[in-house]
Amino acid sequence: MGGMGATDLDELRRLRRARDRMDREYAQPLDVPALARTALMSTAHFARRFRQAYGTGPRAYRISSRAGRGQPSGAAAQRAADEAVLV
């Protein structure tokens, strides 16, 4: 039978730890290499396994989680910051 091994479960725990960090630090800039270090993985391996585990890449996950919180993302956040300076 092809159940999950201890290595797979450990990797999922580490991915969850990185995802939880993304959720906690949602207002901070996304730093995929730092998240990969949190998961004890290379950046490429982290991005690949994150997509396999959660059905979306780290950047897309961040965008959707910000949208769910009503947080601006990317260019919208920059425009809001620029407008605040101009006022």
CATH architecture: Orthogonal Bundle
Task: Give the tally of structural domains.
Answer: 1
Mean pLDDT: 81
Fraction of residues in helix: over 70%
User: Going by CATH, what is the homologous superfamily?
Assistant: Homeodomain-like
CATH topology, by name, is: Arc Repressor Mutant, subunit A
Cα-based radius of gyration, to the nearest Å:
16 Å
> What coarse outline follows from CA principal-axis ratios?
globular
Distance between termini? 64 Å
How would you explain this protein's 3D organization?
By secondary structure, the protein is an all-alpha fold. The protein has a single domain (6-86), classed as Arc Repressor Mutant, subunit A (Orthogonal Bundle). Helices cover 71% and strands 0% of the residues. The chain is built from five helices and no strands. Helix 2 crosses helix 3 (43-54). The mean pLDDT is 81.
Write a brief structural summary.
With 87 residues, the protein is an all-alpha fold.
Considering the chains and any ligands shown, give keywords for the structure.
87 residues; Arc Repressor Mutant, subunit A; 71% helix; mainly alpha; globular
What topology emerges from the helices and strands here?
Elements: H1 6-24, H2 32-38, H3 43-54, H4 58-69, H5 75-86
